[in-house]
Design brief:
With 702 residues, the chain is α/β, with parallel strands linked by helices. It has 24 helices and 31 strands. It binds ligand MGD (2 copies), iron/sulfur cluster and molybdenum atom (MO).
């Protein structure tokens, strides 16, 4: 019998659900939830089965390819050997570095890199030989503000408190839709049931969102908010807490200071002022502040809608200040720090802001990465430090970063581009060489990122489901092989090939839970995972600040209040603002090539309130031209009374109709790319993070 049962955590999103995968020879027979996983308890979503589809996808590259011009002058791709691919790439990188310096090499790393532990452990085997200032990643179209608030308040970019949903009495959620996303910076498999648990216990879930989302649909209360005004709402909550003497840091008071400075700095941000701009009634704001303060335990949590907007960093900082000022940080049922088996807080640098700036626009680095909104201009603007050669890994910035068309064009100007990616997509089609890794089922798996943000402490390691095909390389091996070839050309030091699982074994044995006998061998005996218990109070020991205190007087966000005051000194005359949306069957830009996930009705539509449809002379089901400063696109209009009037919603990650994309199913259901009209100049000025939400747009009948 060749039937086998395998255990594997799903790496497709942050929920890291345990799976039971039945195989027969080299085929997948079934993929089901693993009831014995102590974190996910058997939960899965419709994307889990796509692991099979990714593995079997005929469009997935199995060997390196190089781009050549065919007889008609069109691009075509030719399979080449690994030696040729790696030697050519190393030679081109070395040439650029020797002729123009390290900053002439740009690097962009995408989201799946964080879900693939070999990429995390081994990318430095390549990047340590490059050491360019021109590093970029999906962080700056995403969670950068979370890292900043963690750095400012807790002393380390990764010290992100986890909402203790299973024990809370009051959950105030802004700009997050976990029923579609399955949770983010909050590893919370089975989130629907957990959120329903809050209200079933008699607690409250309040959702603040310009769209009545799936999550709002199960909430006790939903509040429409005008996009980009949440900072005023959060400030008004804080203002009420201070002015009504409701602030009480409780157990945190012994090691927390600066709250009085915050109180003094925000006296003018009243509920009435917030109401005028947010669309949320002043009395409602006061009531929520009082309810939040009165609850035994409460959570304030905000995600993409709060971080990728013009005041993202300020919003994320205010959220933590609210949690601190009400003593809900580090409290059961509030937001707590996890106790993972491998502590990436210790193995990562704390992070820093503005230690160098981008060459063209002067935007600040964070954690040695520049905001990706300035990638295109760094490629197209001549001068010393201009990017001439680009490495992309597990990313698709043409679809995922603002003003994607501009980047699409800029990439054509590169002298050399190499992509570590299994697909020829909107971005990698510009590469000269594509290096495809093994499929997810062909490598082992440990989640190095998301246990840190999980609602329960657990740990699990899983072996590969299938043996890798002859000659195929894992992501981490490609990094190491390429890095060593480059080292030989540059005369730098080669790295030994230590496998990622060996690093995990060492991490477990020196980790904070080592006393519990955690070793790789032990984890192998428990392929469904090992339970390490609920979240517990960890302060002040867990703080990474020099004096082990929380100083709420953070200069950067406090200074940013002036920008906020200035922006809202006048009523907003913008008629329409654009926001995004996610769907449970989709995942950013790269999971549209699997029939099971994309079948059914078109999801790349512009949601509009019926009033707005009428006001702009459109028809539901008709087509509209959606425009911004940077361009326009044509899209089908879908009527939705769940939209706040004055706000339209379009998902990102579509637009697969660009020439040369080799993803058969995706191109047949191409959709349009929202980021063709999002603006590389519309950013959170404090940190350079993209403001993907709240962009001013216009619509007209197409
Ligand atoms: N199925 C699926 N799951 C995913 C992903 C996916 O693409 N598909 N992507 C993964 C990734 S990379 C991430 S980062 C997470 C994101 O996880 P979430 O942040 O939970 O997901 P979103 O659906 O983007 O939720 C953002 C919400 O913010 C709202 N919003 C927009 N602008 C504003 C505003 O100005 N104020 C307020 N209050 N709300 C606003 C939107 O309407 C939306 O409901 O999801 C992850 N999980
Ligand atoms: N307008 C708008 N734009 C957004 C967002 C939004 O809400 N609205 N969300 C933003 C967010 S939160 C994020 S995280 C970014 C995502 O932005 P990116 O990370 O740039 O884009 P993805 O769509 O995740 O593309 C992932 C790429 O990785 C490849 N890949 C998948 N698995 C692997 C692997 O194991 N190894 C390797 N080497 N490659 C792999 C895929 O083929 C694909 O090319 O998009 C952002 N863009
Ligand atoms: S919720 Fe996320 S981790 Fe769980 S099965 Fe779905 S995609 Fe995989
Ligand atoms: Mo993300």
């Amino acid at each position: 019998m060749s039937r086998q049962t395998h255990y594997r955590a799903c790496h497709l999103c942050e929920a890291i659900c345990g799976l039971v995968i039945e195989t027969d020879g080299d085929s997948v027979v079934s993929i089901k939830g693993d009831k014995n996983d102590p974190l996910s308890r058997g939960h899965i979503c419709p994307k889990a089965v796509a692991l099979q589809d990714i593995h079997e996808d005929p469009d997935r590259l199995r060997a390196p390819v190089k781009r050549i011009l065919d007889d008609e002058g069109n691009n075509s791709w030719q399979e080449i050997s690994w030696d040729e691919a790696l030697d050519t790439t190393a030679a081109r990188l070395a040439q650029t570095i020797t002729a123009h310096g390290v900053n002439a090499v740009g690097v962009y790393m995408g989201n799946p890199a964080v879900h693939n532990y070999g990429m995390l452990t081994h990318q430095r085997n390549l990047f340590q030989h490059i050491r360019t200032d021109n590093r970029f990643s999906a962080t700056s179209v995403d969670q950068l503000p979370h890292h900043l608030s963690a750095l400012w308040l807790f002393g380390h970019k990764l010290l992100l408190p986890v909402p203790d949903v299973d024990h809370t009495d009051y959950f105030l959620m802004l700009g997050a839709n976990p029923l579609a996303s399955n949770g983010s910076i909050w590893t919370v498999p089975d989130v629907k049931k957990r959120l329903q648990g809050v209200t079933a216990r008699g607690g409250k879930l309040i959702v603040v969102d310009p769209r009545r989302t799936e999550t709002a649909g199960i909430a006790s209360e939903h509040l429409f908010v005008r996009p980009g005004t949440d900072a005023l709402f959060l400030l008004a909550l804080l203002n009420t807490l201070f002015s009504e003497d409701l602030a009480d840091a409780r157990e945190l008071a012994d090691f927390t200071h600066g709250l009085e400075d915050v109180a003094a700095a925000i006296v003018d941000f009243t509920p009435d002022y917030a109401a005028a701009h947010t669309g949320i009634d002043a009395d409602v704001i006061r009531r929520i502040a009082r309810e939040f303060a009165a609850a035994d335990s409460a959570i304030c949590y905000g995600r993409m809608g709060l971080s990728t907007q013009a005041y993202g960093a300020l919003c994320q900082w205010l959220i933590q200040i609210i949690n601190i000022a009400t003593g809900n940080l580090d409290r059961r049922g509030g937001s707590l720090f996890s106790s993972p088996a491998i502590d990436t807080v210790v193995s990562n640098s704390p992070g820093g802001l503005g230690r160098h700036h981008s060459r063209v626009r002067g935007l600040p680095e964070f954690d040695r990465e520049l905001p990706v909104v300035c990638l295109a201009e760094e490629i197209t603007t001549p001068g010393e430090g201009q990017i001439r050669t680009l490495f992309t890994g597990a990313g698709n910035p043409v679809l995922s970063t603002p003003n994607g068309r501009q980047l699409d064009e800029a990439l054509q100007q590169l002298e050399f581009m190499v992509s570590l990616d299994p697909y020829i997509n909107e971005t990698t089609r510009h590469a000269h060489i594509i290096l495809p890794p093994t499929s997810p089922l062909e490598h082992d798996h440990y989640d190095l990122s998301f246990h840190l943000f999980a609602v329960r402490n657990t740990t699990r390691f899983n072996e590969a489901v299938f043996a890798r095909p002859e000659g195929a390389l894992h992501d981490w091996e490609i990094f190491t092989e390429l890095g060593n070839r480059l080292a030989r050309l540059l005369g730098t030091t080669e790295q030994p090939a230590v496998a990622p699982h060996e690093i995990v074994d060492a991490g477990l044995q020196i980790g904070p839970r080592a006393a519990e006998g955690l070793t790789l061998e032990e984890l192998r005996k428990h392929p469904s995972g090992i339970d390490l218990g609920p979240l517990t109070s960890r302060l002040p020991q867990r703080l990474a600040t020099a004096d082990k205190t929380i100083n709420c007087h953070s200069p950067e966000p406090l200074a940013d209040l002036a920008r906020l005051r200035e922006a809202f000194s006048q009523p907003d005359a913008t008629a329409l603002r654009l926001i995004g949306r996610r769907h449970v069957r989709s995942n950013n830009s790269w999971m549209h090539n699997y029939h099971r996930l994309v079948k059914g009705k078109d999801r790349c539509t512009l949601l509009m309130h019926p009033q707005d449809i009428e006001r702009h002379g459109l028809a539901a089901g008709g087509r509209a031209t959606l425009s911004s400063r940077v361009g326009s696109l044509e899209v089908a209009v879908e009527t939705s009374a769940d939209m706040m009037p004055g706000v339209v919603s379009l998902p990102h990650g579509f637009g697969h109709n660009r020439a040369g994309v080799r993803m058969d199913i995706a191109t047949r259901r191409a959709g349009v790319s929202c980021n063709d009209i999002t603006d590389d100049q519309f950013i959170d000025q404090l940190c350079g993070n993209a403001a993907l939400n709240g962009m001013p747009v216009t619509v007209a009948p197409a």
